[in-house]
Structures are given as C-alpha cells and as structure tokens.
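Honest question from a wet-lab person: if I give you the sequences of every part of a complex, can you actually get the arrangement of the whole thing, not just the pieces? Trying it with mine:
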Amino acid sequence: MEFSELIRTGQAQAELLRGPEMPPLRGTLCVTGHHLLLSPGPQATPDLWLLLLRSVDSIEKRVAGDAGTITLRCKDLRVLQLDIEGVEATLDIARSIEALSSLESVITSFPFFYRPKGLRLGEAWHFHPPERYYKRVARETRAWRLSEANEDFSLCPSYPRAVIVPRAVDDDALALSARFRHGGRFPVLSYYHAPSGTVLLRSSQPLTGPQKRRCADDEELLRAVLAGARPGARGFIVDTRSAQAAKQARMTGGGTEAKAAYPGWKRLHRPLERGRPLQESFVRLVEACGDPEQSMDRWLSRLDGCRWLSHVKEALSTACLAAQGMEWEGACILVHGAEGTDSTLLVTSLAQLILDPLSRTMAGFQELIEREWIQAGHPFQLRCAHSAFSHTRPKHEAPIFLLFLDCVWQLGRQFPLSLEFGEGMLLALFDHSYASPFGTFLCNSEKERCLCEVRTRTHSLWSGLNQPKEQRKLRNPLYVPNPLAIWPSVEPQSLRLWQGLFLRWTHPPEPSEVAWEKVWQIATDQEKTEGSQPTDSASEPQP
Amino acid sequence: MASAPTSKYNSHSLENESIKRTSRDGVNRDIGEALPRLPGETRITDKEVIYICPFNGPIKGRVYITNYRLYLRSLETHLEFSHGVRGLTTWSQLKDASLQDSALILDVPLGVISRIEKMGGATSRGENSYGLDITCKDMRNLRFALKQEGHSRRDMFEILTRYAFPLAHSLPMFAFLNEEKFDVDGWMVYNPVEEYRRQGLPNHHWRITFINKCYELCDTYPALLVVPYRASDDDLRRVATFRSRNRIPVLSWIHPENKTVIVRCSQPLVGVSGKRNKDDEKYLDVIRETNRQINKLTIYDARPNVNAVANKATGGGYESDDAYHNAELFFLDIHNIHVMRESLKKVKDIVYPNVEESHWLSSLESTHWLEHIKLVLTGAIQVADRVSSGKSSVVVHCSDGWDRTAQLTSLAMLMLDSYYRSIEGFEILVQKEWISFGHKFASRIGHGDKNHADADRSPIFLQFIDCVWQMSKQFPTAFEFNERFLIIILDHLYSCRFGTFLYNCESAREKQKVTERTVSLWSLINSNKDKFKNPFYTKEINRVLYPVASMRHLELWVNYYIRWNPRIKQQPNPVEQRYMELLALRDEYIKRLEELQLANSPKLSDPSTSPSSPSQMMPHVQTHF
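Yes, you can. This is the full assembly:
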C-alpha cells in the first residue's frame, strides 16, 4: 500500500494553536505518510513542528468563508487547533489525517520506518525477561524451572515462549492445565518473594463451566506450588471478579477454582472494574479536566463521579492484599480474573513494586513492564487503539495500563525517595503506549510480535529512553535504594488526581519543572562534591 | 528516612516532635515521669485515666495537667496501625504483624481547648461511659474516661476549666508566665518605619503620620499610618467619621515601579438614607491622583453584593457611583465569618475522627471550604493584577476591614512582593497586615475564653494560612518556608505560649505590655530557622505569582486538617530531609575545600576560568574541581 494514495493534498498555509500557554505557530502545513509537519517560514532549518499521525485520537473539521479549522485531539490528551487557508485544503488535510491515523496494519506503522541517529536496530531488545528473571529465582530456590513448552505458542498464544513453572510439573501436565484455562493461560510464576520464600502466580480463569469440570493436572500444578514453598504453606487465590461474576462465568464456560479441588488454597474476591466501565471512567475524567467552563464549583463531585480515583484505590488495595499475603502471611498468591491479561497484570505488577526493591530501579521497572505487561500478553494494540477522545464506540479499548501508571505515580508521591524513576518516565510510558515511534508497545502478544518481526525491524523504546540525554527527564534525582516494602495508604484523601497527566496541557507546568530542575541541581552538585576529593583538587597541577 | 513497612507510623508524631523541640529549647523534665516542662510551667495535678482514642480504642494512661498543657502517657504499650490498608480481618496473623507496640503520648497545650464537657453521670452504665469530653480548636476531640467512684473527675474538670479558660477565673494567660529565653528577639522582627522605608516610603505622594499615636483616631489601627501627602490630619479626622470604626483608608503596599498602591479601610457609613461625605470622596480622589495617569480608582468590596446592600440597614454600605465618580467598585463575593466557621465545622465532621470514605470528594465539596479558599484567592489575584499591571490603585474593604480585608491585602502582597515570601518577610506580613491592623485574634480564636459558642469566633486566619499553603503548592520554589512553618504558626495561634497572637489590636497589646511581658513566636522560629526552610527555595526579585484559583488546582491540606488520623500517610516530607542531609554534606565539603584553597591560594588566580557551580541557590559557592 502506498501512503501517497491516502494523502489528498501536499501542503497548505496554516496556523497552529497549541493551548493557552504556547505561542501560535504559522507556516506551511504538510501531511506525510506518518506525520503532520508545520514548517514555519522560508528558513529551511528552524523549528519544524512534527506530530505523529498515529497519536491523533479524533479529528473535527469546520469551515467558514474561505478558511477552515481542524481540531485534533491527541492520544496524549493534548488538544491542537489548526487554522487553515482554503476550504478545499482544509477538507483534504482532514481526510488525509483521518485515513492515515487510523491505519490498522502494524507493519506499515511508523516504528518500522523510524531510524533515529545514534541507535542501532536490535539494541536493547536484549530483554529476555522470563529467562533473566528465572536466573534470579534459581539463585534462591530449586522449586522452579524454566519451561519452553510454549516455544511455538501452541499452549498459549498470549504467553511468551518461556515461562517459569514448578519443577515438579512436567510439560505434558502444563499442556493439560493450559487446556483447562481460558486462552491457555495456565498458572505461571510472576514473582518470587525471597524474604518469605513465597510466590506470586498469575493465570486466567479455569474452564469449569456449568458442570464444574475439574482438571487433575491443574490441581496438581497448584499443589506443587504449595509443596515447593514450604511444608504446610497456604495459598490464596485473588479473583479480580466478584463472587457472583465468577459464578456467572460458568455459564459461558469459565468459572473459578472449587474449594474442594484445591486443598490449601483459599479464594478471595476483589472485584476490579475493567473494560468498558474503566474506559468510560477515563473518558469522563478527561472530559471534566478539559472542560473550559470556568464555573467549576461542582468540580469535586464531578471528579468523584468519574470514579477514576476509586479505580486507583481498588487496584492499589488489591495489590496490597496480595503483597501482604506474601510478606506477612507467608502465603502463595495466585491472581486471576477472566482472561488474566488486564486486572491480573495490574495486581501482580503493583504487588511487585510494593515488595521488590529491584523493580523500583530504572532497569528493574523497565524489566517489570517488559515481563509483566508486554511479554505477559497485555493486548496493547487493542486496549490502546484509542484514548479518551475517540468518537467511535469503544470495542476493546481500556486504560488498564494507564491505571497502572497512575497507581505507580501515587506510590511515587507517597514514597518520593523510593522509586529511581520520576513522573517523566510515567508520562513517557503513557505517551508511548498509545502512539510511539518505537516498537515496544506494538501488537497484542509475543506471538504477534514475532510474526511482525518487531524485534528486528523496529527500535526498542528502552534503547530510546536509556540514552543519556533523556535521563534528566526520567530519573528521580532523590532516589535512595529502599530495601523494604512500601505500603501505600489507600484512604481516599491520600490519593490525588494525577495533575501532571490529566491537567498536563491546561496548566502551565513551569513551576513544577523549575522545582524538578532545582532538585537535579542539588543532587548533581552533591555528586560532584562527593565524587571529587578535595585533596585531589588541591594537589592538581595548575597551569 | 526511607519509608518502611515496619516503620512505626506514630499517630502522635506531632506531639513527640514538640517534646523534642521543647527539650532543645532547654525544657526541664520531671524526672521519672518524663513530663516536659517549659520554664515557668508548673505542675498542677496528675491522674490515672483511660484515654478513649478514636483510632485505637481505650488506652490506660496517666494524665498530667500543668498551667500550660495536658500531657498523657499511656501506662501500657498500645497497638497501632502501621499501614493504610484496612479490611484485612480475614488474615488472622496479619493483625499482629501490622500493629506495633509503642507508648502513646498526648501533648496538648491547654490553649487549644475550646470546650470541656462532662460525659455520663455517676450512675451511667457501660464501660468508659463516665468522664470528660474535650473539644479542641485544632480539628480534634479528646475523650477521657474515669472511675465512677467518688466524683473522680470533678477536680480534673475544675482544674482543666481553670487553666484552659484563665480569663473566666482572673488568671493570667500562660504567655505571661512563660520564662523561655531565646537568642533572637522576635519582637524586633517588625518595625513599621523600617518596613515602610523598604517600600520606599515616605515619598512625594505618601507621608507617615503619627496622628494615631495614642490610638485616638482609631483604636483598632496601629500607631503609625501611611496616608496621602496631600491629606492633612484634619482631613483624616473628618474621613474617620464616615468610616466604620474610624478605619480610614491607609496605605498597605506600594508598587516599587508604577507606584500604584493597595489601600485598606472599612466600609463607608452610607446607611439607608445614602449619606455622603465630601471629605471621604475627596480623600479617595486624592489617593487616585497620587498616580497622575490613572482616571479611575478601583474599589474591591470583599463582600457579596447582597451583603453589602444589607449592611446599609445597620449604617454601613458601599461607595456608590454617584458619589464617587472617579472610582469603580467590584464585589468579590467572599462570605462572612459565620459562613466560614460553619464551613470549617463541616470539614471537621468529615475528617474527625473518621474520614468520610464513600464519596469523599463529594462530601468535601459539600463543606464548601475549598470554594471559599478559591474565592479568597481569586479576590487577591484581582487585587494583585490591578496593581502590578499599573491599571489603577486599589482600595480594599469589607465591613470592618479586619477579616476579609486582611486576607485580601496580605495575599495580594504575597503575590506581588517576593520579600514577603521569605521567613522574616512573612513574619512581617503577618505582624503588619494582621496583628497591627487589628484582626481580632482574641475574639476570633477565643484565647482563654470559655464561651465556645461565641459568634465572634471564626477561622479567618487559618483560611489565610491555607491560601498560602495552596500557593506554596503551586509554586514550590517561591517560598523560603516550608509546610512545618505554616503548621507551627497555626499551633501557636491557639497555644497561648507566646504573646504574638494575643488581644484584638495594638492598643490593647500596648496596654498589657505584651512585648515586654511575653515571648514572641518569631523568637522560637527564628532561632530554629533551618527547620522551617524550603529546600527548593530560589530567591527571585520582582516576580509576581498568580496562583491558579480553579477548583481543579486546589486541594485539601491533608497534612493539617487530617493530621491526627494515623491512617493518613503523613511522612515528614522525606524530600526535604534528604535535601537537608545533602546540604549538610555539601557544606562540609565546601568548608574543607575552602580551607585547602586558602592553603593553595596563589594557584587559584582567575576564578572565571574555573567551572562555576551550577547551583543558583548558593552563588558564592565556586567549586574548583
């Protein structure tokens, strides 16, 4: 397919309004295969304004007289206005943007064309999360093994090639367990908590169906988990659905673990909303945040009504529950909902951040996202196809990953020294998960990424983010490794609206940027002072 | 410093902190009982009681009462939550793991007590049903249960009543008994002549008058006033007859460049008949004419329009267009002291003892507290904008000009003048716009007064401090002081340990010789300044701060209003702590470096060739690495 077929017009004169805080830009507007360009004035070099078309969430056009206006609402929640000379030009540009921003083909997307200077293809795809993580686990316990039973993705299309499973269970048993689990997602190890020797597992719902089917291999798998932990160890199954919803799922072939079938395991239900209610909550919140209406006396009840902060609270509480079970109760925890690709990952990844100091480092956090979200098969392409502005009815969209980032932000706010990365990192992850020049968040699973050759044909976001020039924006200068668990407060007044994200484009970020800069100054000053010994400097030969 | 799961979150950290603080100040302790005592503080009684802690249940303890404080130490160690997650009762062992042993301490200055009630009677049944219920001014209540036999609570009730409400018992307030000594004298912080000189006053248009030296012109104004050069003292006397309580328009602040001013006063005495006063009209015109190029003077009436109209019935009112041709009047819709008091009461209802969890935000909204904050800030922003743009000089008044007017002028000055954002500058601002201009602290707070339901009480000053906190949130680098500074001011607003906030006006303070007989709060703060410094402070001259006064950007000051609740994660800002450590380390290195540089001084000839430190905060630091 040629992009040129979709581009109706080469260029037009336009003025770009980027919100109240930024000066308007005038220049020549131009649509290319992946970008919208605005080049101001005749000078060839100065600031070229560039927008990835993929990041356009919705487009609105209006014409009046011989000019037109296009309003672009972006996936990063920015709202841009383009005033364009000429009615035809306006309509053509609008149609081109519409067509190009909604292309569904992965391999024609921009990451497959993006070749930034200074980065080499294949770099930073060095992450082999299950393998790397298995090495960590193997140092601590012999109860687990790395299985490549899913090498060809036949057991479970949404799992990576390698997964960590109990040593006592062989690959044939895994295959049987996979057939008993929704989408083949049999219980696998998500996190090994060395201090208590317990584990966090994740899976999808068992396919008990109305006849309450059982699967001996699945039961054996969970039994082996407890046996591997320590004699008499207990387990908790955290089902992210309500007891009623779990019961109802039987009618459609799903269900939940019967108590009698899994001795030693106790089920807890902690319903977390996902899917459409979550997406709607997100849409309502963004609407409220962007409401230009000045009389916002009802703001708080409107914020309340969006229920976004309740979702944050529920997600954090459930993660705390799982983490406490391991840390204090010495219990093994299995988390699942229905498919095990959304709320499940939210809970397991947050629980790890709470418990595991390594996951709070820059490298560890990247690895956590790679392992617990990307490789674990969170369907990014489906969930992040549109953000909060799309007019089309949401099908599979849901801001689960954003909810995760928000929860991490709340952790960072409550424990300002304990995360090595700062708000900038979380904002970058949000932006890139919805539209990115990098390949990291493409597709829905490892299987799809293999088919599209994402690893060999696109650049990894991690290599982009780990460049030295990005660090000042992404790192937390005050980070001090904290070996302990960080228990967040989930009381409603401890949770805040993430202004840095939801009000990013409506409020001048300058004061907080100045403060951030200040923190950096202090921290780097400190390093310099610490790094050089006064004695050395004094004995330095002077010219 | 790093947060820990097992880090004991001490629900009473504030009290503990105050012990540490007082002991640093040279506080004596009763040996064996570890009761902190200030110089001048005497022990009255002690008693075994059960403290009914709203968070942890009944706790047996011994309560000590002095002429300054109520101090409780638990006899047994008690259990408390160390984390914020609840609803875990299904986890049997969890309970034990999540609760920590520690002795509980309550350290409450008697000044914060607003009401003491007897709970239950000699025949009341049920456990812990007989005792005392204490309502505090700082967003908490205390409840003690006593033994029913022998009227055991009677003497405790009487002693508490006596020392918490000394006014009703012809006793002195503790501030007059306090014998604390500090290196710095806080009473020297504010000198009106110096402050006006800093503003460039007097000048060609404005003069300093001593007409109120003996408080004869206006008994609630300070002795020293700044008025237009062209208005004679006789003019001032005539204007005074037309202003409520003689609070004539006087200068609060002058813009250093465009010379527009903020003027404060009370409402004109227009009355139902619509009286006019030529002298007042002329006087305002003289104020306008101090800036030649301006043809309209802006008057901000802080009240809602309807209230201003209603005030005519009691002889007050506002400047009409007919009478004041060269002025334009705007109403700022800020409600009166009664509305504010009720609003704060509602805030207390939803945060103490338990936080209203379901629909927290909606409940918060229904208190209207943040909405009032918004209106006050919006009003101050308008005043600041008028003046900084040089559009016109501004006159601010409400009814009497000591509540909303003080809020507006002081906040506008804080936005306009970076000097007031330093620690001493802020002390001067409070001392000037609030204390010297007669904000009725004694009536609004009710120091030592038992009449808890007095309609004169109102959290106007707290509201101002809240607005300052909101600003400091939005401009993290603009203020020299931190949150702790604002909280300690509020704590001692009630404590009666210092003379700073006692009495309603300067004339009363002078009569009582407050500056001679009491210690100033600024003495405590300024001899301990590092503790109150904001690590991110970047000194900036001439930057006007315009906070966003939209509901979206205002938040409830959790660390103040909900500080007694142990479930609120309330870390002593670790960023600051870390910063202080770093700074101390850096200072040490710099000192060593300087010593070495001194020893090697001939080698360092040209400082411009050496890389300069990236720090703007300490420009004198030249690191030669």
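Two things worth pointing out. The first strand of chain A starts at residue 11 and ends at 17. Chain A has a mean pLDDT of 88.
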